Amino acid sequence: MAQYEAVFDTLGLRDWCDAGTGEAPVSMAQLLAQAKGGGTEEAGSGLPFPSLDVLHEACPRIGQTRDLTEGLEQGFLSIRSELKFVLDPITQPLSWMLDGTLFVFESAPWWVMIPALLLVSWLVSRSRSVTGFVAFVLLFFAFIDHYEVAMQTLAIVFVCTGISVLLGVPIGIGMSKSDTAQRSIVPLLDLLQTLPTFVYLIPLIFLFSVTESKLYGIAIILYAIVPVIRLTDLGIRLVDKDVIEAADAFGLTSRQKLARVELPLALPNIMAGVNQTIMMSLAMVVIASLVSAPGLGVLVLRGIRSLDLGVGIVAGLGIVLLAVVLDRVSKAALARVDTQRNTK
Amino acid sequence: MSGQPKVSIRGLYKIFGPDDRAMVPHVQGGMDKATLLDRHGHVLGLQDINVDMQPGEITVIMGLSGSGKSTLIRHLNRLIEPSAGEILVDGTDVMALGDRDLRRLRQKQMSMVFQKFALLPHKTVLENAALPLSVQGADAQTQDREARKWLARVGLDGFEDRYPAQLSGGMQQRVGIARALTANTDIMLMDEAFSALDPLIRTDMQNLLLELQKELQKTIIFITHDLDEALKLADHLVILKDGAVVQQGEPQGILLAPCDPYIEDFVSDINRARVLRVRSVMGPVTDDTFDGDVEAASNLEDLIALSDGDTNHCYRVLEDGAVVGQLDMKDLVKALVPRISGGS
């Protein structure tokens, strides 16, 4: 299989190649074979162009693909303590907020918690049917003894959505004001949105201990912050150019313009972004339970681990129910904003 | 008529493109629009505009779409930056103003009315009308009083608490005018303010504007593509074509002596009897006997009705009670035909 040996010979690199023959780890093919549980197969995929592993065979000085992944890992580990030194204090408040909110949601008696939640949904939606629906769902959770875990999930979603909005709206505003910022942030958002959710967890686990709640907090926020940023940017960019021009013509400062014209007119879009952010943080809650996030996700995970079909399905449907509640409440708020200005 | 102009545009050029200033010498050297686009990829917007706008007059800038009239009006408050030239307001060069002074100019000296109204949809009519004062930081009481006063003046009392979307187009534009009046500026810029309204409402609004103008004596710069509207409102008429001034002056003068086939074309379509006034076609007093007296300000239609179509009549023309000239019906009939009257 050493088809490239001749190439190195003719290039006169043979001596250089043979100079260092360190013991390499395994080749990518061997790693994959290991994962499959089969025996070691002969390397080389048979493709007509060279791969790192094949070149390695011809010239040991050239690294294998495994060296690449190994190098990445070593690189990360070498800056880990510095990274931790910076990130740990910055993210510590997140742990406090999550733990605090979880504590409040768990320890507040139901006769405080349920009326408080109903009041919030009434204030946000101003809709009797939506509030009634929320009451029904909360009582249903209590009825099937899932009240406590549902509250835990809700606490996590509240904190993560809150922080996403707090960070996402200013970032979105910044993006809408500068094309350069938009060009550089959009690929990052694309990355965050497409990166498989488990992949976030890998570097986070290296950085923080699994028992810390900020670990899952960060994972959820990174995943859920994307829509609120995107839609804030879009919303502000879509504000009627004529109205912006009028604001300029009457001598508004850029801050006045933002507060009185751009943000209010972009509000429907921003709210749609918040709605999406809520949905995405709820979706992430199950994966977050892999790294000790409490709530309904734990039950789903248990269903998978010990093949408790019923437990998993009930908890899963519970998440759906929670999603419907949050969606209805936030959509009702959005509709309220919309009708206020478009009533004929 | 004479005296210092309120607003004065001197040698204004606007070229659209990345390197507009460098293109100015080409245009000054006589390069035309097509060549500039072809050879340098820049679009010629305005060239060598020189217009004086007298205080207390309505200056109408007329031209077809693409003639650069909306671009021109936006230079006055620098919503668009010129490529070359200067704009003097009360003798101060607007081009030399810094951000803060420019904002003050926009707040205190120039207000603007827009074709598409450009009201804030999330604010009530009252809040919209009070916008200029709230931007300037006036107290709530003053804002409320002034906004109500001007809303009532444009015929919108009782609508203060509605939202713009609840009003018809004509009423929305009344809010736009009230907003501009609340700013209490000497200069009002009106960018095709009535073009989006249907004909009957447009006539109403024109009358409203003339009525307000009689009372307030502001310096109004009005943009339109409609010659009838221009002739009705203008004290001073500027006709733009392809970014250059073709003719400017007193509207009756332009009507009687168009200096360009383009304007002749324009002028040929209108009802001259309604637009021309006795003052413009009368001659010096030579006769002794007259068939009656007419006011200098009445239009020819009135006179035709008065004479019952008899071309043998000759009338004495009075202005403020004094005799200022005489008008033979034969001259009147000649004035109705553009080509004959062109020479006189």
Short account of what is shown:
The complex is a heterodimer of chains A (344) and B (344). Chain A is an all-alpha fold and 344 residues long. Chain A has 15 helices and no strands.
Spell out the helices and strands of chain A N to C: HHHHHHHHHHHHHHH
**Which architecture of the largest domain in chain A does the CATH hierarchy give at level 2?**
Orthogonal Bundle
Strand tally of chain A = 0
Oligomer: heterodimer
- Class by SSE composition of chain A: mainly alpha
Keywords:
heterodimer; A: 344 residues; mainly alpha; MetI-like fold; 2 domains; B: 344 residues; alpha/beta; 6-stranded mixed β-sheet; 4-stranded antiparallel β-sheet; 13 strands; 41% helix; 22% strand; globular
Polypeptide structure, described:
The complex is a heterodimer of chains A (344) and B (344). Chain A is mainly alpha-helical and 344 residues long. Chain A contains 15 helices and no strands. Chain A has two domains: 2-77, no CATH class; 80-343, MetI-like (MetI-like fold), CATH 1.10.3720. In chain A, helix 13 packs parallel to helix 14 (296-305). Chain A is globular, with a radius of gyration of 27 Å. Chain B starts with 6 loop residues before the first strand and ends with a helix. The radius of gyration of chain B is 22 Å and the shape is globular. Chain A binds chain B through residues 240, 242-243, 245-246, 248-253, 256, 260-261, 264-265, 267, 340-344, and chain B through 77, 79, 102-107, 110-112, 114, 116-122, 131-132, 135-136, 163, 165-166, 179, 183, 189.
